[in-house]
Amino acid sequence: MSSELPAPRRIITAHRAEDGVAVVKDDGVIPLLDVAPGLRVAPLWVTNSVPAKDNNLDDDGGLRRATRDSGLISPNGTHCTVTDLAPGAWTAWHRTNSLDHNVIISGTPILKMEDGERITKTGDVVIQRGTMHAWYNPGPDWARWACVLIDAEPAVVNGHALEAAVKEAPSS
Fold first, then answer.
1. Residue 46 CA: distances (Å) to CA of 54, 59, 95, 118
2. Is the pLDDT of residue 2 over 90?
3. InterPro entries under this entry (predicted)?
4. Which of 5, 39, 45, 132 lies in disulfide reach of 95, CB 3.0 to 4.6 Å?
């Protein structure tokens, strides 16, 4: 198995209180959390509302996920994360009530959908709109993508709301 990717660096900007000059408030590495075999996530920032009020708060939005039991979605808010998937690893099948922007940073993860799959590559952007899906990394290297998840109404098909769900990982 290839070596793991380094933890992502996060740079947070702010304004100096006395004169409003734009400054770097924090610059550091965010540790990745093991959430399942071969699956690691780094929570970079969480907002509790849209529009976000974070520009005027002094707390670390990355720590909100650790201190709140909000799961992947913050009601009326957003989550920004980095996801790493090991070679040969799958995520579970899942659907969230969110609009997700996934930007592939490295590797070639496969997006598995109910109607088939798409191979993605560095620079691709996958917009998830409340659909059931899973990810698979065929390797040989770790795959990484950045995700911005925005709370959304459930997708509705034929008048029926599709609820959030998690199922077992697909088989190869």
1. 9, 11, 19, 29
2. no
3. OryJ/VirC-like, RmlC-like_jellyroll, RmlC_Cupin_sf
4. 132
